[in-house]
Structures are given as structure tokens and as C-alpha cells.
Amino acid sequence: METVVIVIHLMVVLALVLVVLLQRSEGGALGIGGGGGGMMSSRGSGNVLTRATGILAAVFFATSLGLALLAKNSDRPASILDTVPGTQTAPAGEGTSGSGNGILDQLRPPETPVGPQVPAAQ
């Protein structure tokens, strides 16, 4: 169901962009222009494009709300934190020593001396 609404939503988005680009601008640079009478005169095409823009905008709004409701009611976890198992908390005195068994301590490489080695003084 969600895939069908997404496909309809994308088709409406493309049609809306196309209709907006076809409309006559203030200077008439991007409009379809041209003379002639009847329905597709400059006034008639302006009315048709304006009405189509309004209808497509309403359908876009409706599909956006539909997708939001579908996402809200889905069975997936609401947050990535919901999928993480419970973490262990350290007792009160052990949090400051830095030698715990946390995830960062597990990722740390074994401690090796850095720099030149100096023999111990006698």
C-alpha cells in the first residue's frame, strides 16, 4: 500500500513541476505563448494551468498526509534506539576509573608504549 502511494506521490510531483514550468511568467519567457483563439488561447491556457496547479497541489498535500499516516502506523520501530538492547550501567564508583567494559573500551587497541623506549634507571 505504501509503495502505491509513493509512486502516485512521485508522479504528482513530476506533473506539478511540469505544470508550474509551463505557466506564463511575468515576462512571458517560459510560457507556452502563441496566438490563436478558443480554449488554448493565452487566457484559456492560463486558466487551465492555474486550475491544474491547484488540483495537483491538493493531491500532493493529500498524498503527503497519507504517507505520514502510513509511516506513523507502520510496525517498524519508532527510533533506532528502540532496536538497541539495554546497556549495562556502571556502579557509582567505577565510572571514573576508565577501565570499564564499555563499547569504547572494547574497541580500543591494546595499550602499547608510544615513543622511544628508555631503560629503567638503576
Describe the structure in brief.
The protein has 122 residues and is mainly alpha-helical. It is 47% helix and 0% strand.
What is the general shape?
A: elongated
| Number of helical stretches of at least 4 residues | 3
Helical amount: 40-55%
Largest sheet: none
Low-confidence stretches: none
Distance between the termini: 79 Å
Rg over CA atoms: 32 Å
Indicate the mean pLDDT: 75
Elements, N to C (H/E): HHH
Count the strands?
A: 0
Q: Structural class per helix/strand content? A: mainly alpha
Beta-strand portion reads under 5%
Report on this structure:
Helix content is 47%, strand content 0%. The chain has a domain at 42-75. It has 3 helices and no strands. The termini are far apart.
Topology:
Layout: H1 2-22, H2 42-72, H3 103-107
Helix pairs in contact: 1-2
Name the features.
122 residues; mainly alpha; 3 helices; SecG; transmembrane helix; Protein-export membrane protein SecG; transport; translocation
